[in-house]
Amino acid sequence: MASLLRPTLRTAAARALHTQTAPLPSTTTNALSLIRSQPSQYVVASLAGRKYLLTPRDLLTVPRLKDVKVGDVLKLSDIHEIGSREFTVRGNPVIPSEQVRVEATVVEHTKGRMEVIFKKKRRKGYERTVYHKQTYTRLRIGPIDIADIPSS
Questions:
Q1: Which residues form the signal peptide (predicted)?
Q2: Does residue 7 surpass a pLDDT of 70?
Q3: Residues sharing a CB contact under 8 Å with residue 101, sequence separation 6 or more, in sequence order
Q4: How far is the first Cα of the chain from the last one, in angstroms, to the nearest whole number?
Q5: Average pLDDT over the chain, rounded to whole?
């Protein structure tokens, strides 16, 4: 009975076939070309003071951006990391904007749910109720364009 619970050598060998290791790229240009060849990519970018993990066609909600209108296209310049399923390139601290280009389109300006803030001071008869809705901007992330920079 105990032999049925242990994985056999055959299943361990079958698992090893699926986890092949790829050769490591020697330069950043080679690493970016390997990431470009993968079917899906992601980026870690800073926007409105926070880092977000983004993929193409994501809908991102950030605190209100005051100087943009609906339909404006924003270029994300602070990209900290780009990767795919098998490879990742991290910037030091950011990846140069010539190598990776990501754009976000402003979809709407919206408000969050109603927040109720109740203020009270003991034994003074002071009670106030403040209602508040936080404002947000929603962005649609465009395609991730990895530049094809020839190695020199």
A1: none
A2: no
A3: 75, 144, 145, 147
A4: 62
A5: 86
